[in-house]
Amino acid sequence: MPAKKRGSKKTKSNQTLQGAIVAIVTPFKDGKVDEESYRELVEWHLKNGTHGIVVVGTTGESATLSKEEKKRLYELTVETVNGRIPVIAGTGTNNTAQSIELTQMAADIGVDAVLMVTPYYNKPTQEGLYQHYKAVAEAVKKVPIILYNVPGRTSVSLAPETVARLAKIKNIIGIKEATGCMKQVTEIIRLCGPKFLVFSGDDFTAFPTMALGGVGVISVTSNVLPKQMAEMMNACLKGNWSKAQKLHYKLYPMFKAMFLETNPVPAKTALALMGKIASAEVRLPLAPMSEANVEKLKEVLASYKLLNQ
What we know:
Blueprint: E1 19-23, E2 28-29, E3 32-33, H1 35-47, E4 52-55, H2 67-81, E5 87-90, H3 96-109, E6 113-117, H4 126-139, E7 145-149, H5 151-154, H6 160-166, E8 172-177, H7 182-192, E9 197-200, H8 206-212, E10 216-219, H9 226-237, H10 241-257, H11 265-273, H12 291-303
Parallel strand pairs: 1-4, 1-10, 4-5, 5-6, 6-7, 7-8, 8-9, 9-10
Antiparallel strand pairs: 2-3
Helix pairs in contact: 1-2, 2-3, 3-4, 4-6, 6-7, 8-9, 9-10, 11-12
């Protein structure tokens, strides 16, 4: 089913949730959030056609941000974007009460939707996952919720049948699917129908997910190549599959480079090398990129003419 024929959702700012949505990094400087670099990054994405921003996601190092830092990043993003594209706040944790608190906070600040990762470490059953999301959706009804399934990081996976149960809850509107399994994507779309929004959870599967009927990608590569990722998604949304396929292969070396080490280390290193952020600093337990991998990353960046700009 072509992506352009599938349902889409308008946010309260009258923006459509689709296309290339960047899972934006959180720049740090001397251990603190670098607000100046962050604002500049957001403006850069707006100028380059990024369709939406996920703030405080995995790529934003949500696991090491305090509640106060998360609140400030939600605020900064909403203020800077000012309704021009959708803002999606990462509010998922492995604690249902805490997830409700963060979701309420983000909703009060004025985000367009929230992204909620499956509870990690606890290893809940499918019923536990259903009850977790149901509890948050019922507690905070005024904000749309996008599920986030990434078993490679959480050790649990939302079954398509569980996703279909959750899709019946009014304010659960979609899923970021990061299993890398096209069978899983197919089952979710088949069971949930065209109004449920399916986003690719990684850049490698963005093109095939769109071909199956997805509406976009929540992207790491968009941090570094926002214009090109937006072009690929625009081609998919218009049904121009030949152009989209060419862009997929053109972007593929960068997809691989973004995972030379644990995300978001390569993305932040690339942005620092490009002069887009002041520092590639990450928080422990993440560590700076190895010298050998920095050299590999530089080669890829040079091939896209991204150095010394």
